[in-house]
Amino acid sequence: MTKTQITTSIQRLLKPHKPPTATHLRRISVATQPPSQLESIQSTFTNLNTTDDWTNFHQQILSLPSESLIKISRQFNTSNKALKFFHFIHDNASSTTQSVSVSPLPSLFQAVIELAIREQDESMSIVDLYNLSKELKVSLTPISAIIVIRYFSRVNKIQDCVSVYDGLDPNVKNVNVKNTLLDVLLKSDRFDHARQLLDEMLEPNANFPANEATLNIVFPVLLRWNWEKKSEEFIDLIPKLAIHGVFPSNIWLTQLITKLCRSYRNDKAWELLHELMKFGKVNTEPCNAILSGFGRERNFEGINLVLKEMKQNDIKPNIVTFGMLVNHMCKARRVDDALDMVKKMKEGTEGICIKPDVILYNTLIDGLCKMGRQEEGLALMEQMKLEDGYVPSVVTYNCLIDGFCKSGEIERAHQLFDEMHGDGVYPNVITLNTLVDGMCKHGRIGNAMEFFRKMQEEKGIKGNAVTYSMLISAFCSVNNIDKAMRLFDEMESVGSPDTLAYYSLISGLTIAGRPDDASLIASKMKKAGFKLDLLTYNTLIGGFCRRKKLDKAVEILKEMEETGVKADSVTYNTLISYFTQNGDFETAHKFLKQMIVDGNVPTVVTYGTLIHAYCLAGKLDDALNIFDEMIKSSKVPPNTVIYNILIDCLCKRGKVERAFSLMDGMLQKDVRPNTTTYNAMFKGLSNTNRLRDAFRLMDEMIQQACNPDYVTFEILNDWLSAVGENEKLTKFMRGYQVSSAVSSA
Fold first, then answer.
1. How far apart are CA 226 and CA 217, in angstroms?
2. I need a labelling partner for 233 at 20 to 30 A (CA). Which of 294, 433, 537, 702 fits?
């Protein structure tokens, strides 16, 4: 702003306003002023408000002390009147005889700014007032600075906020001013400036160090951030805040540790917690959060380190701590360690005696059942009832029922189901689904259906989408599609099927060779508002390919692309396989090119499919060209299956030498020949009566512990019997060397 503009602004600010009415006058407290002085102040204030000509009161005003002048300035009800008073004092300050140790001008100017910000009057701009303070070289007070900074922030002029702060006197930049600017900077994503300001507040001998308000500004921002480098820099400041006596609450600290762990930054979470433990203010909850994070990673070394430091810092684990540890141990299949920990916890052998609760028992029982140790789980439930007096919950029974169902002990599972009533525990839909699933997987679909109906009628448990999906899948697996369809229709009548139910029926119909019906269900699924996923599309494409309806499969692929579902290697491998089987190598190669364009790397299945198809079609050279391309330009090495396909085809064509060359290539690439490889070679060698090579391969099979099968014996028996080498075959069958003293070549 130019000097002319500033002068114009000042003139506008000094434009006289009508004096306020008496009802607007504010009373002055009598608690801190003697009656005579109070009367003088009130008299002066009344005179100032009843006239715009203050000449007659010149001496009366200037004889008042600074404190009185400030009190008068705060009684004005308009910023214009307060500004006029400020200018009156400013212009006559040199003529006052009152000894003033501190100039009242900054405080008088603060009163003007406070009135202006309340009035929100365009004629009294905060910007103009700020420029006036600079023109008159009147320092802002901390409160004035905060008002101006907040104003510039509100109008989104963040750099002006920084400029205001930089222009303040050092003694004005108190912690409140710093916190105000810090809040503005963080909310405006000015992280570099915010970090510099925090560093300034965290210096060892800072005049205005960080306080609780600083923490209240920084922490909510940390909890909102996604974890990047900038956020980690601010996390590193938290221990420095603690050095200044500013420590986050355990609720906030727990939230921060949890967020770090869920963002896969367990290392940073532990680094922070480890530093804060030194201050002796960390309690159990943040430690539980880091233990949970380490548990998800199966980082038992980290868990042990946390527990060790908790003990050193006298942080007592609670039932939640042990619950998490037991849960993670069970998931890592370390159930015996979990049982031992709970035993010590219960007995207090480690100095901590905590009674396990039902949740902890359920976790142990579930862990035992998932390891196939459901009998021990059952015994633990009895211990829970007899020793601790707990009543098992429906979760307890569900875990045990699931364990017995998975082991095929359906009758024991039903027995437990009947026992639930004796403990006053009522089954839920999970109980129903567990038993239905167990019966279906062990071929008792009829019993599962009967149990489902019984639960509907007697217990009022109607089942959910999972129940219907399991039954639909089970009936589809035994090719009872009609029953599956009726269940699906029933499901539609009692509630909306979910994606699992739709997919179960689509998959079942496809497996049963009814892709058209599966496609109709897919159409119903789309009409119901569901989107088909990649798995569903691949299922439909595979179903149409198996029925040799390749045009329909391509239609599904186009629909898939139009809906934004990207084909994967399974999609392309399926299409390539069936188009090559149909003899359409041109289209198959088009799919191969499209597969690469879409970013899908051809797999060993892709190359194997093409090589096998070319071999079946009698196009050996094309098959070998694909193989050579795979070796030279592909990052996918050929496997035993691909070598076997080519070796078998070469031997059938009488190209045994090339087959031997491929076998050598297998060994060079650490691909081990198997029985199928040797059988193909024996067949080829028998056609040309190359006994010496056959005996060498027989010895090689023995050396590599590659066991012959009935095909091997059939080929060798027919051949060696015809040439009088039965003794060699006998030695081979017994695992002895056969290549010495060969009678013929």
1. 17
2. 294
Report residue 449 as tokens: 């259906």
Q: Would 467 be classed as within a structural domain?
A: no
CA distance 518 to 512: 10
Alpha-carbon dihedral of residues 592, 593, 595, 599, nearest 10 degrees? 140
Expressed as residue numbers, the domain containing 81 is 1-24+35-125
Torsion of CA 320, 325, 326, 329, to 10 degrees: 160
- Chain-wide mean pLDDT for the chain? 84
Rounded Cα distance between 592 and 587, Å, is 9
Structure token digits, residue 92 = 């006559």
The pLDDT of residue 94: 57
Distance between CA atoms of residues 55 and 707, nearest Å: 121
**Whole-angstrom distance, CA of residue 502 vs CA of residue 522:** 7
Phi–psi pair at 158, nearest 5 degrees: -70, -40
Q: d(Cα 276, Cα 225) in Å, to the nearest integer?
A: 21
Whole-angstrom distance, CA of residue 278 vs CA of residue 351: 22
- What is the pLDDT, as a whole number, of residue 741? 45
User: Are the C-beta atoms of residues 744 and 723 closer than 8 Å to each other?
Assistant: yes
Q: What's the token pair of residue 133?
A: 């303070």
Q: Find the distance separating the first CA and the last CA of the chain, reported in whole Å.
A: 108
Closest CA to 734 of 691, 698, 688: 698
Check: CB of residue 656 under 8 Å from CB of residue 690. yes
* Alpha helix (H) residue ranges in 333-428: 335-347, 358-370, 374-386, 394-406, 410-419
**Residue 523 to residue 143: CA distance in whole angstroms:** 68
Tell me the per-residue pLDDT of 705-727, one tens digit each, with 9 for 90 and over. Answer: 888 889 999 999 989 888 888 88
- SS in 3 state form for 60-75? HHHCCCHHHHHHHHCC
Q: What is the DSSP letter of 387?
A: T
CA–CA separation, 412 and 103 (whole Å) = 92
Q: For residue 530, give the H/E element and its range.
A: none
Residue 649, Cβ neighbours under 10 Å: how many? 23
The count of structural domains within the chain is 1
Q: How far apart are CA 400 and CA 366, in angstroms?
A: 7
Task: Look up tokens 């019906």; give the residue.
Answer: 517
* 117 occurs within a structural domain: yes
**Token code pair at residue 572:** 């392309």
Please name the helix (run of DSSP H) or strand (run of DSSP E) that holds residue 681, with its range, or none: helix 675-688
Q: Which two tokens stand for residue 629?
A: 């391309």
Longest dimension (CA), the chain: 145
Mention every residue, 6+ apart, whose C-beta is less than 8 A from residue 25. Answer: 45, 46, 49, 75, 77
For residue 327, being part of any structural domain is answered with no
Residue 2 forms part of a structural domain: yes
What confidence tens digit (pLDDT) does each residue in 231-281 have?
677 888 889 888 888 898 889 999 999 988 888 889 989 999 999 999 888
